[in-house]
Automatic annotation (TrEMBL):
InterPro entries: K_chnl_Slo-like, RCK_C_sf. PANTHER family: CALCIUM-ACTIVATED POTASSIUM CHANNEL ALPHA CHAIN, SLOWPOKE 2, ISOFORM D. It is found in: Membrane. This is Uncharacterized protein.
Length: 207
C-alpha cells in the first residue's frame, strides 16, 4: 500500500511513547494519497487508549475504513480527508494538494498573486491589510463567532477563522488543536483561541 512505511513509522512511534508512558511527539507526516489520511487519525484517536496495543486498534481501523469506502461516491471520497482530525490539526501534509494548486494556477493565472498577497502582503502595503493571527480578546471570550465578527468588522478587521487548542480531555472526548475556517455564527470563542484576521497587523486588538 502507498504510504505504508510512513503509517507504520507513526504506529511504532506512538506505541513506543505509550509503553514508556510519555506523550507522543508532535509529528507532521507527508502522504502521497489523500485517501490514506484517515489512517493517521490514529494519532489523535488512540493516543490515550492504552488498554490494548495500538496495532490492534490499527487493524480494526483499517477494516472500518474499507467498509466506509464501500458505497461512497467518488466526490465524497475525494474530500473526505479534510474532515479527519489528523488533517484538521495540521499533522498531515498531502503532496497531491500542491499538484492540485498548480493545476488551478494554470487555469487561473491570477491565483498565485492572490495567495501570495494573502500570506505575505505586498512591500508597498506592509502597514496596510495582511493576514495575521492574534489571541482572542478577553471581551470576546464566551461570545459567538457571529457577534465577534461584527464587533471586529467595526474596527476594520475581518475575522476569517480561529485556531482552537486541544480540550485537555483524555479518551474518546479528546480533541486535538485545529484550525476552524469560516465557523458557524453560533460557534463559541474560548480564552485560548487564536483568531485569523485580515487587516492592519497588530499583536493585540483592543475592543
Amino acid at each position: 500500500m502507498v504510504d505504508a512505511n510512513a503509517i507504520t513509522c507513526v504506529r511504532f512511534i506512538i506505541e513506543a511513547s505509550n509503553l514508556r508512558h510519555r506523550h507522543p511527539p508532535n509529528l507532521v507526516v507527508e502522504l502521497a494519497r489523500h485517501t490514506n489520511v484517515r489512517f493517521l487519525s490514529l494519532i489523535v484517536k488512540t493516543e490515550s487508549r492504552r488498554e490494548r496495543r495500538l496495532s490492534d486498534h490499527f487493524n480494526d481501523f483499517i477494516q472500518e475504513y474499507e467498509d466506509d469506502l464501500l458505497g461512497q461516491d467518488d466526490d465524497d471520497v475525494q474530500i473526505a480527508h479534510i474532515c479527519e482530525p489528523a488533517y484538521a490539526s495540521g499533522r498531515v501534509c498531502v503532496n497531491g494538494l500542491v499538484e492540485a494548486l498548480m493545476s488551478e494556477c494554470y487555469r487561473s493565472p491570477n491565483l498565485p498573486s492572490i495567495i501570495d498577497a494573502m500570506l505575505h502582503g505586498q512591500d508597498s502595503e506592509y502597514d496596510k491589510l495582511q493576514l495575521f493571527q492574534v489571541p482572542c480578546p478577553k471581551v470576546l471570550v464566551g461570545k459567538s463567532f457571529g457577534e465577534s465578527f461584527r464587533r471586529l468588522l467595526r474596527l476594520n478587521y475581518i475575522c476569517i477563522g480561529c485556531w482552537h487548542s486541544d480540550n485537555g480531555h483524555a479518551g474518546p472526548k479528546a480533541t486535538p488543536a485545529y484550525v476552524h475556517t469560516n465557523p458557524k455564527p453560533e460557534t463559541e470563542l474560548h480564552a485560548k483561541d487564536l483568531l485569523y484576521i485580515v487587516g492592519k497587523p497588530t499583536s493585540t486588538i483592543d475592543i
